[in-house]
Amino acid sequence: MCLDLLNSLFITHKETHLYHRYIYTKDIEPLLVKLGSNFKIDVIGKSVNDENIYSVTIGSGKKKVFMWSQMHGNESTTTKAVFDLLNTLSVENIYSDAILKACTIRIIPILNPDGAKAYTRLNANEIDLNRDAQDLSQPESRVLRECFNDFKPDFCFNLHGQRTIFSAGKSNHPATVSFLAPAQDEACSITPNRKKAMEIISVMNANLQDQIPNMVGIYDDAFNLNCVGDTFQSFNIPTILFEAGHYHNDYEREKVRAYVFQSLLVSLNYIAQNEVSGDFYKEYLKIPQNEKLFFDIIIRNAKIEAQEELVDVAIQYQEQLINDKIEFIPKVENIIAPLQFFAHKEINAKGETVLNSEYKPLVIGSEIDFIYINDIKLSLKLTFS
């Protein structure tokens, strides 16, 4: 696909009413209303707290693609990309025309409305819906399964977000976008339907490598039948896990949103234009596996009171919902010498003493908005335009 056209479509059809990280049902309902008559909007169930769970269906083709986002309520990047995609499909262009003629697409934009509103991974009963695929103990899990059974998809897209801790392989490259063709058995066998998922991922990866080389990873494929992707894969439906990760200084996940949008459009176009056989799966096997090698900030070569040698201080942002906004609170995660990890931001203390806002030594587990190095105040807070 033409990269210039992909970028142009994103700029033109980006849903500007969705921004940053906090997105829940109230935000998407007006957008569903404004979708055209060729979109079928349904309330397919209710959450624990009686919030509507919606689905959007578009297209008239025989190839059925089923996708769902915000199974984990605090993973909203893919929801933004879904609405960018819907806007793109709502107008005539060379991609939307081909996709809608060949495919029928059904999307659940927010599967976990209560978790989305509370900005938490879990639902209102504090259950991880992505560990409930066998028990189906939660109403949201049952809604997803009933929608799957009713729609009878040929492909499934399981849309998620991942933390800033992940690298693409054992490298100083963040995992900006990650994928997975989930396992369907304990042996993680490369089955025919997994090959089909791998083939599609290979196509998306090829597009991304032209823009973010070495920043695409493969998520852990350890088999767990309680996970939805593993369960649907075990039903012999090619299933793809999408993980929206981190790009440099993109804590709002706006840059990553564009890469997820491109990946959705590229994959749908590939499905529309080809009979996915699985024959071209081997490029998938070259994508590096994710590693947990990043912190948000590392203060290198720091002198901490009571420590005889210089240390590295690892700081990770804690996402907290405060007054309907997501705040990133810096927290000291580790103090060790030396720290064999990478950081999205590094500060070199050059052997000077590092103190907190009260001029006291840093302590693991403490939250700190700024530090002092040699009496120079440095803020650790994120700022957004």
Automatic annotation (TrEMBL):
Boundaries of every Peptidase M14 domain copy: 18-271
Listed GO MF terms: carboxypeptidase activity
Keywords: Carboxypeptidase, Hydrolase, Protease
Keyword Translocase attributed: no
Keyword Protease appears in the UniProt entry: yes
Pfam families cross-referenced by the UniProt entry: Peptidase_M14
Active site: 243 (proton donor/acceptor)
PROSITE patterns assigned: PEPTIDASE_M14
Entry's EC annotation: 3.4.17.-
Protein family: Belongs to the peptidase M14 family.
Name this polypeptide is given: M14 metallopeptidase family protein
Organism of provenance: Lacinutrix iliipiscaria
Lineage of the species this protein comes from: Bacteria, Pseudomonadati, Bacteroidota, Flavobacteriia, Flavobacteriales
